[in-house]
Design brief:
The complex is a heterodimer of chains A (about 200) and B (about 350).
Chain A: H1 5-16, H2 20-40, H3 46-60, H4 68-92, H5 121-128, H6 133-144, H7 149-156, H8 160-176, H9 178-183
Chain B: H1 2-9, H2 14-23, H3 35-52, H4 71-89, H5 92-97, H6 103-113, E1 150-151, E2 169-173, E3 176-182, E4 186-188, E5 193-201, E6 204-205, E7 210-217, E8 224-230, E9 236-241, E10 248-253, E11 263-268, E12 272-276, E13 284-289, E14 298-304, E15 310-317, E16 323-328, H7 330-333, E17 337-342, E18 351-352, E19 356-357
Parallel strand pairs in B: 4-11
Antiparallel strand pairs in B: 1-9, 2-3, 3-5, 5-6, 5-9, 7-8, 7-10, 10-11, 12-13, 13-16, 14-15, 14-17, 17-18, 17-19
Helix pairs in contact in B: 3-4, 3-6, 4-6
The chains are: A mainly alpha (about 200), B alpha+beta (about 350).
């Protein structure tokens, strides 16, 4: 991410003046991570939420003044709010009679391509969704969005120390996941004895 | 990026390092698939951006705090503003109503003008022939009937049809307003999904109009005709989609360019587990059957902790499409509660088995 800083600063400046190529550069650079972030948040339709996010960005770009880090924080803040609103709207729907006892809808996370020696983008994102929400958001904003801990703290309304704790716990839980253990070249060691 | 994490948290476990690298991997083609639509959106809205550059000010997050704006309201406001911009751009709107724009542009026009009846980009004839035979929907198992079997809405009592949908998907357009909703947005894989539709004009149901059900199964790029049926006297129509095996989106089209927006139905694969005890406590196995899973799906064996939470103890990536077997020693897990979780994919939602309490070996 850091290596793109200068490029995106320039793209941001051009996009702000209505330059299509500048916007496209921004979009290509950030859209994939935006989608991954929205998947971590359990969005039903990350493409739709990403579109709404970009629409708001384009409409309010004239109000924006800041550097690339500010822009990234702004973009992911909007996306997070959209995801939260969408989740609330979803929660207001009447419960499906068929879904009792089943996990909540987990959206279109694709783990089919996941194999134990090469993990896919979707597989990695799916692993994050198994974390507690606070840890998943912290790791996603820190790693996927590429924000520093202080910016993550601002977005999540927590102290930087609390975010570090969430990150540490989230990364530790991820590292202990049997699938991640297997990726490390170790056999899928059970955390309880007696499982082969 | 991982190096930053390392700076903060020290060396990473090799497996974790791979996971974090995967999270920040190069974009996949599907992640950039909406590029043209994004450009079209930018073109339609950049005037405001460019104009605004005359009076820049310090960044203030534009998004309202969560909870203060319902998604629908915010979305509508944005769409209204975007729609106004497109109207000012001139000419686009009329073309959009006719679904005459290039597909990517039509998509974004639909996104911002769907409330005004602009249809989505069509991968097929905008108005499929009412005589078009239902096609086999992708993702449905050959052994299961693929015919959605539209049935006359008269089979249902009009009062049974939810006329005031909690979340109707409505797109008003001349010559009417066509709404669609799923009776249930989540169904057990292999069971029936029911899509209800209503065509109204000036608040009254339109009878004997031919409505086409379009289906787009997860992972499929194009909409396909899944069936047709005529509205009853109240303007209602009901489609039964039999044996839905994968997540899918559905949409209704009617006379002219009348079209509903898409409704999504996700499927939950059922999981059956059987604990088979081996002789003298040897080779005890938990046999997992998941008929609607596919090779490559990840299945997690979990044990319940003292506080009630579930802990992952083993992951299998399915090599066969219908299940797997976990070997374990019952003596180790006596009185523990196990369950199996199928992780979500593009094609299905996550699913968990019923809990299994491991007996005390005799």
């Amino acid at each position: 991410m850091a290596e793109q800083t200068g490029v995106l600063e320039n793209a941001l400046a051009r996009a702000s003046t209505g330059d299509e190529a500048g916007f496209l550069e921004l979009w290509r650079s950030l859209q994939p991570r935006l989608l991954r972030f929205l998947r971590v948040l359990g969005s039903d339709d990350p493409d739709d939420l990403a579109s709404e996010t970009w629409l708001q960005v384009v409409r309010d770009l004239h109000k924006f003044s800041g550097d690339e880090e500010d822009f990234r924080r702004w973009l992911f803040t909007i996306a997070r709010h959209r995801a939260i609103d969408a989740a609330r709207a979803r929660a207001r729907r009447p419960a499906s009679p068929d879904s009792g006892g089943l996990d909540a809808l987990a959206d279109d996370r694709l783990v089919e391509d996941q194999v134990l020696d090469v993990i896919s983008v979707h597989g990695a994102v799916a692993l994050l969704t198994d974390l507690p929400r606070e840890q998943a958001e912290a790791v996603a904003l820190r790693v996927i969005a590429g924000l520093d801990t202080r910016d993550v703290a601002k977005i999540l309304g927590k102290s930087a120390g609390a975010i570090r704790v969430s990150l540490h716990r989230g990364l530790r839980t991820l590292a202990a996941d049997p699938a991640v253990q297997a990726l490390a070249g170790r056999p899928d060691r059970p955390t309880l004895e007696g499982v082969e | 990026m991982n190096s930053d994490i390392r700076d903060e948290f020290g060396p990473l476990d090799p497996g974790l390092d791979q996971v974090l690298q995967a999270m920040t991997a190069q974009p996949t083609p599907e992640e950039l698939a909406d590029e043209q639509a994004a450009v079209a959106m930018f073109r339609a809205n950049r005037t405001a951006s460019a104009r605004g550059t005359r009076r820049p000010r310090r960044f203030v997050p534009a998004a309202p705090p969560p909870g203060r704006t319902a998604t629908g309201q915010g979305g509508w406001r944005m769409r209204l503003a975007a729609a106004a911009t497109i109207v000012l751009a001139g000419g686009l709107t009329a073309a959009a109503y006719e679904a005459a724009l290039p597909a990517p542009v039509q998509r974004i026009a639909h996104a911002v003008l769907s409330f005004a009846g602009v249809p989505e980009a069509q991968h097929h004839s905008p108005k499929p022939s009412s005589t078009a035979p239902p096609t086999t929907a992708p993702g449905r198992r050959p052994s299961v009937s693929s015919s959605p079997g539209p049935r006359p809405s008269s089979q249902r009592s009009p009062s049974a049809r939810p006329s005031s949908s909690p979340h109707p998907s409505v797109t008003p357009a001349a010559p009417g307003l066509l709404s669609a909703q799923a009776a249930s947005t989540q169904v057990i894989a292999g069971t029936q999904a029911v899509i209800d539709g209503t065509l109204t004009r000036s608040g009254r149901g339109v009878a004997d109009a031919t409505i086409t059900l379009l289906e787009r199964a997860a992972g499929q790029p194009a909409w396909k005709v899944a069936g047709t049926a005529d509205t009853n006297a109240d303007g209602n129509v009901v489609f039964d989609v039999a044996a839905l095996a994968t997540n899918a989106a559905f949409r209704l089209t009617g006379p002219g360019t009348t079209s509903s927006t898409a409704v999504h139905v996700t499927v939950v694969p059922p999981i059956t587990t059987t604990l088979q005890l081996g002789p003298r406590g040897l080779r005890d196995v938990l046999v997992v059957s998941i008929p609607y899973a596919r090779p490559g799906n990840a299945v997690v064996l979990q044990v319940q902790g003292p506080a009630g939470g579930w802990r992952n103890i083993r992951v299998h990536v399915l090599s066969a499409s219908d299940g797997t077997t976990f070997s374990l020693k019952v003596a180790t897990f006596k009185n523990k509660v196990l369950r199996v979780k199928l992780r979500a994919t593009l094609r299905h939602a996550a699913s968990v088995s019923a809990p299994v309490t491991v007996p005390v070996p005799s």
